[in-house]
TrEMBL record:
It comes from the Bacteria. It comes from Actinoplanes subglobosus. It holds the Pfam family Ribonuc_L-PSP. GO terms for molecular function: hydrolase activity. This is RidA family protein. PANTHER family: BLR7761 PROTEIN, YJGH FAMILY PROTEIN. Its EC number is 3.5.-.-. Coiled coil: none annotated. It is an enzyme of class 3 (hydrolase). Keywords: Hydrolase.
Amino acid sequence: MTAYLPAVPGYHLLGVAPADVVHVTEYVTAAALADPAFLDAARFAALGGHRVPVSRVPVEAIAGDDAPYAVAVVTHPGGGDLITDGEDVLRAAGGIVFLPSVHTTDGDFRDQYRWCLERIAALLAKAGLDTGALVRTVDYTATATRAEYPRCGRPRKELLGPGPVHPGAAGILVDVPVAPGAAVSLDAVAAYGPLTALNPGWARYDTLTYKPAVRAGDSVFLAGFGALDPVSQRAIHDDDLAGQAAFIYRSIETVLAEAGATGENVVHLVEYLTPAAVADYPRTAALRDRHFPNAVVTSVVCSALLRPEFLLETVPTAVLR
């Protein structure tokens, strides 16, 4: 069974069998990004010759910890199937295809966004899939690109197709780029077999290139959820982290109900906090535990979120047991 583990501050604390790892996410601060060779060496020391797709995600900080970086892994007995494309690797396990994050430093924002989608399409082709197999995308851009962000809509429409299934998606703002000149980096997950879009009737998604959630077999990959009213499309609970968290968690459960699931089916949450949310964030723990008692949680601090009013964005993964 595929297992999602919470981020820990350093590879030495992973405590997993390297041969079972199918994906690694490195949440890295500016201090860690200044020495990427150190990160590569630490990963090699922990995993040895076991090759895995790596997502390197710049963050402002690890919530509740002053570590320069933290590592979250996904495991599956035996490590699934290795798929290679030059230096890039993918792993397929339990019907899910885990990809590395991608970025380029050439071109403007939209050019780079298009390149990222095209690179993901090329990687998926190595697994016998196309972009119609995507179940989630998460893009990381700088706050300065917020006004430009709608420009990614055209390459998404052209490269992700008309649907009816589009991936769940999240957009996170981080002001330290993964590499100098990179305006965007993109994470993606795909799946084999038939996919089902989950939407509790929210019309705003009819014209978007992402859906509230996608079911692939027994897994449900949800989009990033902020405190946005799905009817009025207005941000709510300004300056109120507890109010935003409660709204987000109820919205997640509303979407899960479309698959006959509840918050108890959520196995993993990634929570992106803005700096303004850090002080109050510990107060949301009890609420989160009530809604998602079986979830492991990775919490990191981003620079901002696409809606300036947002203090929190939550990206959940669920398994139907």
